[in-house]
Fold each of these.
Amino acid sequence: MHQATKSLSDHVEVGEPDPISIVEREFGTLMMHLIRYKHQVNGDRIDRMALMVLGTLSYCGPSRLTTIAERTGLDPSTVSRQVADLEKAGLLARESDPEDRRAIQLKATDAGQAVLDRLSHGRRRRFERLLSDWDGDDIVALGRLLGQLNAATEKYGDQNALEIEQELNNG
């Protein structure tokens, strides 16, 4: 027998915050926890955005700066600064674009890939620690729900970006 889906109002207890407020608060708390971590590579601080650029190159392969900017949602000038820092640290290299020798492609170096691999293994350990007291079904549900949230974020990304810009600029 198919059970009817409950509306959000069915989940609100008298005197309790509504479910969207709870999600908003908890997501904000999670984001604050995540941004506290600092990234140091061989004594030099590597910006999170730089690691995002490096990860994009690792995932997508050699790419032009403009392509990286599009894929990450960062401004090209920001990507350019991150590329300079990554190149200085030996984590990124420039090479000629095989389709247009006048253009330059960027790629993660072996050292850059090694940093990403270490971060990936460490992230896995941290997730295992964070979720060690959770029931397996809850972990599966979290993964599924995060997938839904990511899909909705992608679906409404342009609309949300426009609204945020308007809210910032028009009070």
Note: The chain has a mean pLDDT of 87.
Amino acid sequence: MRTTLKNGFLFALIALVCSFSSNILAQPQPQTKTPAKKVESKKEEGKVIHLNKEEFLKRVFNFEKSNEWKYLGDKPCVLDFYANWCGPCRMISPFLDELAEEYKGKIYIYKINTDQERELASMFGASSIPLLIFIPMSGQPQANRGALPKEEIRRAIETVLLGKK
């Protein structure tokens, strides 16, 4: 029974992410402040943070305890599903480092290695990488497959995550 619920949830989450993948910049989501516990340390501010499954469950979404999507962070985030062998992933990596510093204290940028975290990659349908998922404080995540120019990533951060027009 538990496996069936988990599989059903994973399918629903993948469908949700895929449904937003072609419409990332079309309509910004309204932003509201949601109190949450702070999980970032000062040494992580302004840096890209690599996540494993355990950290993902604490910082982003605990799919083992809940079937309903609820972002756990205290700031919006970008999830970057990547692999070390992926050329387009390596191409956008410096952009994400720069944007993490630029938006220091406003957002998190998390990286998830699809070769090491296969369960997370499978959950989000990260069979084609890079996969960037923009997670606002409220509302649904929005995804984009493929390498984006730095300015398009910045525009998505501004509109989807920070609610600016």
Note: The first helix runs from residue 2 to 20.
Amino acid sequence: MDDVIADLTKAYADEWLAHYQYWLAARWIRGMDADTLRDILIRQSNDELGHAEKIANRIIQLGGTPIMDPGKLLQISGCGYKQPPGDPNNLKQVIQDVLDAEACAIETYNKLAEKYRTTDLVTHEMFEDLLEDEVEDEEEWEKLAGIWK
């Protein structure tokens, strides 16, 4: 059980940091087409927060405690956090940073879904659902990256 809670806690930290990364970038970016990206960043920031909520609920169901000290999110995270670029007009970098975050989430959830396939069906299904969401997000950002070459 400790291994499941540890994996869930790492995923929880990743989702909180992705939420914050996207939320902050949405407020920071400027320039032509920033409004288009801003709307997508805000929507996906809310999605990531929803993922964190699902994971927190599972941690609690299993008798664990979600991270209570936000200062520990970076320490526990597997995917980390990328702050918005110094230049708020660098939309291409924002897109790349989101793609990097989504790729890490996909790799993580793919591994975790497989890890719990036969030992914890509820956690397995949750990671499968999160994986599906992250793949959809990555596809959307790949299309945007094609526009901002």
Note: Helices lie at 2-28, 34-61, 73-76, 91-115, 121-147.
Amino acid sequence: MAARTPLSHGTPMTASFSYFRRPPHVMAAAVVALALSAAPAFAQAALTPELEAAVQAVQRATQADADQYAPAELAGARQSLAQAQAAHAAREKKAAFDLALRAAVDADLARARSQEAVASAEVAQRKAEIADLQAQIGAEGRR
């Protein structure tokens, strides 16, 4: 297409890039080159299944209040996860794998200990309620 001349200025406008015609095989080659150049960056950023499982395990432990009931185990899991992520970034696959598994196990232990502490507190509360009710029943029976 021809370039247009605006009415207010005396200088002609340049044609838009959308008007440049390229053969389809040139465009296809450009798309393939772009996709291949982006693939290594995506592969490096993608987490391994073990690392993703460790991240999720730490999140589950945090949601189970492991910060309160199992802080040492959760801190160990977070430290192992950070080391696993650093090893993954450095492309140390074996170290990243081992550390991710360790983080997941530590996080699962923290979650289990937290759930145990919550359950124990609930049992203690129920026992106290039962003792109160038994005391009330005993006091009413003596009247």
Note: The radius of gyration is 32 Å.
